[in-house]
Amino acid sequence: MSAQNFWQAREMMGQPSPARERLAMLFDADSFVELDGFAMTGDEPAGVVCGYGAVMGSPACAFAQDGSGFGKVQAAKIAKLYDLALKTGIPVVGIYDSAGARVAEGADVLAAYGELLLRINNLSGVVPQISLVAGTCAGSSALLACCADFVVMTKDAQFFMTPPALSQDKAEGAGTAEAAAKAGVAHVVADGDAQAMDAVKQMLMRLPLNNLAAAPVLDFAAPAEELPAAGASGQALAAAFCDSGSVVELLGGFADNCAYTALASLGGSPVGVVAASGKLTADGCNKIAKMVNVCDAFQIPVVTFVDAAGFEPSSKAELCGSVREMAKLSHVYAEATTAKVAVITGKAYGAAYVALAGRAANSDYTIAWPDAVISPLEPQTAVAFLYGDKITPETSREQVQAEYEQGEASALAAAKGGHLDDVISPELTRPAILAALDLLSAKRVSRHPKKHGNLPL
């Protein structure tokens, strides 16, 4: 039986192909062109539909698994698709829903996984890759999906390396979309296929076709949100200064107590938005580093809002290697050559300032609000070390600290020292960022020749 007749038979029985239905949701009407539609595994279809078409008017490749087993024929179809994406420089969307490997194929299926992993990594940073986990994605398939730039999951999907039922600890919730979001694996969790496809489309709209292509120019409207107050959340800052309706939050369930990341647009041009608040944790550092790394790969400018009182001080955190994640964050910012604009909205203490907004972070343009406090130590600690003698029965510690924050640690003092490019009122933030991004659109940086930097992994 041919593949086409097989699907026709299923549809006649009231069982349409889930893979084709999902691809129809993704691609513009009548634009999808299928590849290798007659490839078979024995007497059955290969278990995946591959092809290319237009998504919101822009070209893209995609494959969708149909819930059956993964084997060498399926892998060969997907490998062809990756080869096509490399030749043409267009994004790849992988829709994962598989019953797992065809164990009967033995070492052949292991080699098939290896071939795909090689292609995914060769394409990394060349074209955008988005994984959509719409069913079960387990074992080596989970490894493949996780190597994409972004991972979208439907809330009922499963995503794991080892089946939770077979694990020794049997942790509650293991393999669920909720767990994947909390672990920083899933960038977006959607209620169903339609919402997941919309999330994929929103991401593709804000990404260039490849690392050499110009970023798309989007229609935009100025934000209608009121100016945020001091201490506002990253979500509020993004809504207030980015184009209206353009913000797509990513990794929302991961380290959201101290870090916010999103894709958005400013003046119609795509940007990555980062907001650091409070005490940055190891997970917060990892979340921000992930975002900046992807933006840098595709030359998407990064706008960083800083209101961070340093890094989380904890001996337990040090036992867990948090200093490694903090060093990773600093490394990613310093190595990124894309345009970087930093806005200090409140606190910027110690290493948090250095890593996110300082010259060491290779920031192209750093501005601060008038009430920002920029200090090498937390003000109370700085006062204890430097100005303890000023604390008297007549002058309280709070008064001395306030004098320090308004004087030596003020935004104006940092600007006078050449550590800031400007001090502006909050209502001028959007025009200042737009002007900086316009200038930096022609930014060119040459690095020392090397294979790669030694990222603290």
Distance between the termini: 50 Å
The oligomerization state is single chain
Shape: elongated
CATH class of the largest domain: Alpha Beta
Beta-strand residue fraction: 15-25%
What gyration radius follows from the Cα positions, in whole Å?
25 Å
| Structure annotation, total helices | 16
Number of strands: 19
The name of the CATH superfamily of the largest domain reads: 2-enoyl-CoA Hydratase, Chain A, domain 1
What's the domain count?
2
CATH topology of the largest domain: 2-enoyl-CoA Hydratase, Chain A, domain 1
The largest sheet, given as strand count, sense and whether it forms a barrel, is: 8 strands, mixed
CATH architecture assignment of the largest domain: Alpha-Beta Complex
Q: Which regions are unreliable across 5 or more consecutive residues at pLDDT < 50?
A: none
What would you call the structural class? alpha/beta
Properties at a glance:
457 residues, alpha/beta, 2-enoyl-CoA Hydratase, Chain A, domain 1, 2 domains, 8-stranded mixed sheet, 7-stranded mixed sheet
